Amino acid sequence: MAENTLANGAANGAVENVAQLNLQKIYTKDLSFEVPNAPQVFQSQGQPNVELNLSQRVNVLAEAVFEVVLSVTVTCKVDESTAYLAEVHQAGIFGVAGFDQAGQEAVLATYCPNVLFPYVRQVVSDLVQGGGFPPLLLQPINFDAIYAEQMRRRAEAPAAGQALNS
Fold first, then answer.
1. What is the CA radius of gyration of the chain?
2. What is the pLDDT of residues 17-33, one digit of tens each?
3. Of 23, 31, 32, 166, which one is least surrounded by beta carbons within 10 A?
4. Hey, how many other C-beta atoms are within 10 angstroms of the C-beta on 112?
């Protein structure tokens, strides 16, 4: 009996320290769509050039509760003229508990944007199509690879600084 009590106690203690991640809310924080050269842009025959800028921001709301904001700006130009500009700030509130610092940072930088991106893609497509243009379907983004590249650069930065100081 004593062994069962210890095993259950250890198991209960382990459950308390298990990493937990939960999605509490997803919402569009801000959006904007502009067609600065309408209606002339609709007569343009040139090839569209689409540029995508992506960023993310993490805000601490409470202990183990974070707001992650994925910001996407899409600029489409035809010749030298801007056809449209779409900007979306898609946000989510995530509970992230029981992770070490590195694990928490990785979850906020990879998992959370992966959850938000399909919403961004849909909002951008709807805005562009509603603006009178063919729908724009954003291609998937590998947030894991982006995070890995950021970590590689962060690791190289101190080494580069030490080499300069030597």
1. 22
2. 688 999 999 999 999 99
3. 166
4. 25
> Could you tell me which CATH number the domain at 19-155 has?
3.10.420.10
pLDDT per position as a tens digit, 46-80: 899 999 999 999 999 999 999 999 999 999 999 88
CB < 8 Å & 24+ apart, contacts of 73-76: 74/50, 74/124, 74/128, 74/136, 74/138, 75/50, 75/51, 76/48, 76/49, 76/50, 76/51, 76/128, 76/133, 76/136
d(CA 113, CA 13): 31
Tokens of 55: 């960023």
Encode the chain in three state secondary structure.
CHHHHHHHHHHHHHHHCCCEEEEEEEEEEEEEEECCCCCHHHHCCCCEEEEEEEEEEEEEEECCEEEEEEEEEEEEEECCEEEEEEEEEEEEEEEEECCCHHHHHHHHHHHHHHHHHHHHHHHHHHHHHHCCCCCCCCCCCCHHHHHHHHHHHHHHHHHHHHHHHC
- Residue pair 105/93 in contact (Cβ under 8 Å)? The answer is no
Residue 1 binned pLDDT confidence (cut-offs 50, 70, 90): very low
pTM for the complete prediction? 0.81
